[in-house]
Amino acid sequence: MFTPHLLTLGLRAVKPFTLKRLALDALKPALALLAACLITACVSEPVDPDNSSAATSSAAPTPNSSSANNPSSANTGPDLVKGEQEYDAQCAACHDKGGVRGVSTAFGATSHIINAATGQFACEHTDCTKINKLKNYIIASMPLGPVDNCIGDCARNTAAFIATFDRLTPASSASSVSSSGGENVVYPYPGNALNGATIYEQQCQDCHGVNGHSGAVNYPLTPGECSTCSDPQVLIKKIIDTMPTPGACVGECAIDVATYVKTFTSPVSVTCNNNDIKPGHSPMRRLNKRQYANSLKDLLGVDVALAADFPDENILKGFDTNEDGLDVSGAHVEAFEVVAKKVAIEAVKKLNSAASMVPASGDQCNSTPDCKATYGNTANDCKNSAAANSVCMCGGARCDASSPTPPAAGDALLSCATLDNACAHGFINDFGQKAFRRPLTNKEKNSLKAIFAAGKQATDFKGGIQLVLETILQSPAFIYRAEFGASGTLNNGVVQLTSWEMASRLSYMFWATTPDDILMDLAQQNKLRTKAQIRAQAERLLNDERAKPVIRDYYTQWLGIGDIGSLERTPADYPGFTANTPNQLRRETEAFIDHVFWDGTSTLDELLTADYTFANNNLAEFYGITKPGTNNFVKVNNPGKNFGLLSQGSLMATGARPDETAPILRSVFVLEKVMCVHLATPDPTEVNIVFPPQDASVTTRERWTQTTGSGNCFQCHRILNPAGFIFENYDPVGRWRDEENNLPIDSSGELIATDSDGTFTGLADLSQALAQSDQVTHCAVTSWANYAYGRHIDEVGDDHCSMEQAYEAFSTKGKNLKELLVELTQTHAFMYRNEVN
Fold this sequence. Notes:
Elements: H1 16-21, E1 42-44, H2 80-90, H3 92-95, H4 131-141, H5 152-162, H6 193-203, H7 205-208, H8 232-242, H9 252-261, E2 285-286, H10 289-300, H11 330-347, H12 368-375, E3 379-383, E4 391-394, E5 397-398, H13 399-402, H14 421-436, H15 442-458, H16 461-474, H17 476-479, E6 480-481, E7 494-496, H18 499-510, H19 517-524, H20 531-542, H21 548-559, H22 581-599, H23 604-609, E8 612-615, H24 617-623, E9 634-637, H25 649-654, E10 656-657, E11 660-661, H26 663-674, E12 687-689, H27 700-708, H28 714-725, E13 739-740, E14 743-744, E15 749-751, E16 758-760, H29 763-771, H30 774-789, H31 800-812, H32 817-823, H33 828-831, E17 832-834
Antiparallel strand pairs: 1-12, 2-6, 3-4, 4-5, 7-17, 8-9, 10-11, 13-14, 15-16
Helix pairs in contact: 2-5, 4-5, 6-9, 8-9, 11-16, 14-15, 14-16, 15-16, 18-19, 18-20, 20-32, 21-22, 26-28, 27-28, 30-31, 31-32
């Protein structure tokens, strides 16, 4: 059959990637990948001749400061004797030496190299133990005074000498404040805010951000965000005890930093009102693979497997709905063309009968018996029986769209008695509007009519319709959800979405597919503009069966269990594990989520703390619990071992390696996914990533503690390790264990730098704390918004008020997840967009 290419018809072909370059808003920079340090252990970088303390250097010629600035030689190591002499001559006046080497605070500046109170190495310049970096710092900044006072060998030797300080044990310096932080200590306050600013920039800013507005560790220090910051005494104690590591900043250091932190102001106004509309970033979104397949099925009734040729989507911010990851490659362009042709060929097979389009529209029934009369006993319900758009349901889906034996009338593509030009033109208008999710322009209609005519002339009527379908299904208007907003700017360059655009936002958010007839009819009447109109449709869509796969998809992606089918474990190591076990673990989680969301309380609290799970006979035997007596997944109790979603076998198994648990993976999940803590990416030039060596004489907890308890690893792992150890009762296949290597499991742990800081005896304690955490509640709102809106949420920018509105509604309505999803449709971020220039 002849199917001419679009270009041969003289059309101005617009490939999807071309339109992507013309997107309505510039794409945000790609999000940073999760650090390797967060999923593996890390140790200090290997020693090399030019990046070590060079403590073994034996060269000791007579120093000559005037000649020491010669460029350093790459063939010899640094000279520690010369380095000490340069230090005495140029550094000691500020930094001291002798028994309290590096402690002095001359010139009114805090310039400790050795911590005054603890005697620990605490150089403010973060790279004091890295010879090359410290050398560069000295060349650029030290000592104070004329430029180039110490360069070349001078800087290199001095840096090597300073790097030996962490091997010293200097006498404690007299400090006005004890580092013990006893309960009765009253710290002198305020301190020197200027000194505090210097220390903050060097030791705190990477994690907490400029002016405390959140950095690598998403824990802002601004008013209203930091519960520790309101009381100076509590803040000083917190710094002494934990920041950036215990004892690293005490005495004047802690007081000055606290004084500086108290100067921070909130990054955004705490007052939000409906008159100040800030919709945030408004990207043009490409349909992802799942949305594209669902749309084809609902438009044409074709098998979604036809879309299998599409490349897998990128996952950004945890979801494949994020527009930053929905780029178009050459493979995508080819897939669009291949799939469009396959679908069109399949669809035109339905031209032999003439009746309503699939899916059929209009009033199909007044009662379930009406449906059974038409579709047989497979019909079990008449949906919306009192409305003019009622449809028959078969097994939870529309009979006309998914029944195994649909009637001939519902299987036709066209609603014409005669297959002529008028019929084709009517199809172009009707189907084009459904596919483009808006009325076609006259130019689009004329172009498609010309395409039909060319295809018909080259072949026949079917060939013309097929070519029209191929064109529409490759059109940017179908592939992309372009939004321009209604005419008339509101304020500050903001426009409200049209009803057509709102219909698409609602449908793809709740059903991941094209709008149904009800939404299209309301859009035609311009009745998707007010909050009440939008809320009514959001509630209708959410309470429909078609919302269930979307809820499952969100949690599957959020949990990271989408690829659990490829999980491999050795049955000899894990008796009872079979090739079907990963699928069983996934079904357990799906059944649990379905129950909480649709049959339970629908609350975040139940999701996090439920003392039950779901299992069938096979999975119950695998877990070693009483069989429920059925092959279906039903609710079961496993007292003391089930603690909501975080104890699900699927999550524990994917958060492990084939032969051991992975405390860091589990910790990262809690901190990043549950609490929205952004974890810093380590500099790969500073750490050498390795796993703790296997040792059957100790536990996994002990191996990780030994490997990451000091050096470059410690600053990250002091936060990561304690949270991950809480899950150690769950083995690499998600089963409960009390021992490892015949040693008792220690599942105690701690949260650090969160709003729920404290120690926990196990997952039971942790899950209760998370359920009570405002940070977790906020994170749930932001995470759902990221998925539903299809973009990154800027909580401290234009999205702040939208997220606060959703949070307030969510928290005041018992943290009901259904209420949250509806409320997300009532925000400025959902109802408006920035004007397109």
